[in-house]
Amino acid sequence: MSTVTHTLATPIQAHGEEVKELTLRRPTVQECRAIKVLPYNIGGEGYPVVDLEAAAKYVAVCACVPTSSVNQLDLSDLNTLAWTVVGFFMPQGSNQSEG
Questions:
Q1: Alpha carbons 86 and 89: distance in angstroms, whole number
Q2: Which of 91, 98, 86, 95 is closest to 4 using CA atoms?
Q3: Which long-range contacts (CB under 8 A, 24 or more apart) does 52-58 make?
Q4: Quick one: CA dihedral 83, 86, 87, 92, positive or negative?
C-alpha cells in the first residue's frame, strides 16, 4: 500500500481551499529521519501504540498539508489517519489493532 485516501468526517482548510479527503502516501526514509521518531511505540503486550505527536507530523508530510490543517481534523479523522500512517511501517500481512 503506497497511498491511502480517507474521506474526512469534517472538511478542513488547506492551502486556502476546503479539503474533503486526504490522500496519504508512504513516507520516505529521508522524511522519517527528518521527523526523527516513528509514529508508534510498542505497548506492554507487544502491540503498536500510536505516538500522536509523531503521527500528526507524518500526516502533514504524507498528505502534503500544513500542520495548521492537521490541527483542524476531527478526532475520528485524526485517529484513522494516525493508524493509517502506523500501517505504512508494519510488515505486509501483519494485523494491527486500532484504538
A1: 5
A2: 86
A3: 52/78, 52/82, 55/81, 55/82, 55/85, 55/86, 56/82, 58/27, 58/31, 58/85
A4: negative
3-state class (DSSP) for residue 31: helix
Q: Where are the domains of the chain?
A: 3-89
Structural element, H or E, at residue 66? none
Alpha carbon distance 54, 17 (integer Å): 25
Distance of CA 38 to the CA centre of its chain: 11
Give the pLDDT score at 78: 98
Residue 2's Cβ-count burial label (10 Å; 0-12, 13-18, 19+) is exposed
Q: What is the pLDDT of residues 43-84, one digit of tens each?
A: 999 999 999 999 999 999 999 999 999 999 999 999 999 999
